[in-house]
Amino acid sequence: MEGIIGSKTRIRLLVKFFLNPAVTSYLREIAAEFGESTNGIRLELNRLSEAGLLESSANGKTVRYRANDRHPLYPEIKAIVGKYTGLDALAQQVFQRLGDLKAAYLVGDYAQGKDSGIIDVVLVGKVDDLVLRELVQKVESLITRRIRCLAVSPAEWQKLVDKQTFVRPMLAWSAE
Is 73 helix (H, G, I), strand (E, B) or coil? Predict the structure, then answer.
C-alpha cells in the first residue's frame, strides 16, 4: 500500500480506523500510539476528514475520530485494509479448511485498530490443530505478520465472554 498511498501515517490511520469501525480515538492518543508528532497526525486526520472518510465529534476540547461507515468508498477501503493486513486471507482459509468452526474472533491490538504485527484470533468450534498450524504458517508467510490462535469450544467461549476475558472491541466472522 506504500506505493499507492505516499504517507505512512495515512496508511496507519486507515488501518486503525477501517480495520474495526468501532474504534474511536483522539489526536494525542494516536500520536502517542504511533510515536509521531501531533502536527503530522493532525494533518492526516484533517485530510481524511475533509475527504469524508473519517467522522469527528467534539467532547469538550477533545475531538474523537472514527471511520465514516456511510461513505460510498467505505466497503472498498475496508476490503483494501483487510487485504493489506492479511485478515481477509486468514478468514477465508480458516473457514474453508479447519473443521466444524462456528465463529472466529479477532481480539487484541488488531481488533482495536493497532497494527502491532501480531494478529490474535479466537476460533470457536472443533478445530483440526494440524491443519490450523499449517494454515497459520502459510498465511504468516503471505502477510508478514505473526498469528496467535486460541481454539475453544462454544461453551469455553461463553465462559470467556462471561468473565469478560477479552477487552472489546472485537471483530467477528461467522461460519453461517
Answer: coil
Pick the residue with more confidence: 87 or 160? 160
Count of Cβ atoms closer than 10 Å to residue 40 Cβ: 15
CA 20 to chain CA centroid, Å, is: 5
pTM summary value: 0.55
What CATH number should be reported for the domain whose range is 8-77?
A: 1.10.10.10
- Cβ(85)–Cβ(15) under 8 Å? yes
Model pLDDT, residue 38: 93
CATH number for the domain whose boundaries are 86-174: 3.30.460
Residues β-bridged to residue 148: 120
Residues 105, 168: Cα–Cα separation, whole Å = 11
Give CA 161 to chain center in angstroms: 19
